[in-house]
Amino acid sequence: MTVTQETWQHEYITTNGVKLHYVTQGTGPLMLMLHGFPECWYSWRHQIPVFAQHFQVVAVDLRGYNDSDKPKEQSAYVMDEFIKDIEGLIRGLGHDKCILVGHDWGGAIAWSFAYAHPNMVERLIILNLPHPAKFSQGLFNPQQFLRSSYIFLFQLPGIPEFLLQSGDYQIIPKTIQGTAFNKDAFNQADLDTYQKAAAKPGALTAMLNYYRNIFSHSFFNRDWGILDVPTLMIWGENDTALGKELTYGTENYVKNLEIKYIPACGHWVQQEKPELVIQYMREFLVI
C-alpha cells in the first residue's frame, strides 16, 4: 500500500525528564501509537496517513529508542517511568485523553497506562501483546516458556549487546524479516531504518534494559482488575514469540473487548497486514 509522508512532521517534546521524538500528522482528537522491540515510530508508517484524516496521529519513539533520549541507568526503564512518559506526552500535546494504540512493548505500556489512567484512554487498541495477567500465566506453559526464552538471554550483562551488534547490527533486520510470516512486508529501506535506529549510541542497551527490568516492575507483579475501557485486540496468528492461546480468557479482564485474529500473519501485524489492521481499527472506531 502507498505510504504518504509529505505532511509528516518530526517533533520533540520533553516530559518526565526525557526528550521524546515523535512523528505527527493530522489534526483533531489524539491517536497515540506506541511501537515495540526492536523498532521505532516507523512501524506505524502504513497507519499514520490513514488515521491522520480523522485524528492528530502521534507515533512516538519510546525512551531509549531511535531519536528519543536514552538514559544510561537501567532503573530508568521500568513501567512506572513509561507510564509517566505517556501521561506527560498526552498533556504536553494539549490533550487530556487519547485513543491509545500499542504493539509488542508498546502494547505492554498501553495496557498498563489504561489501568493507571483509564480516564485518559478513550479507546484502547492492542496488537500482538497479551493482557499482562495472561502473559504471566502463559510463562508457566512449557511451549510459551520456550518461545519467551530470549527474555532470559537478555538478562545477561553485555552478551546480548555483543550478539546484536555483531556484523554491523545485521541481526536486527534479519530477526524482523526472519520471524515475519509475510516476508515481503519489509523492503530493504524498512529494514535499514530499524538497523540504523538500533545502532544509534546507547540505543541497544536501552532497548535491552526494558527486558532486564521486566520481572521486577508492575507489569507482572500485581493483581489485575477489570478494565473498563473499550478495547480491541488484533492478533497475527503466526506469531513465533507469543502463542495465540495467550489471548484466550482476556474477556475475564476487560469489560468491553473485541478480538480480531489475522491468519497467515506473524508478530509484526501492522506491517505484515496493514490493510486489514486499518480495516479493523476503523470498524472499532466507527470511522
Automatic annotation (TrEMBL):
Pfam families: Abhydrolase_1. Keywords: Hydrolase. It comes from Anabaena azotica FACHB-119. It comes from the Bacteria. This is Alpha/beta hydrolase. GO terms for molecular function: hydrolase activity. PANTHER family: EPOXIDE HYDROLASE. The keyword Hydrolase applies. Residues 29-274 form the AB hydrolase-1 domain. SUPFAM superfamilies: alpha/beta-Hydrolases.
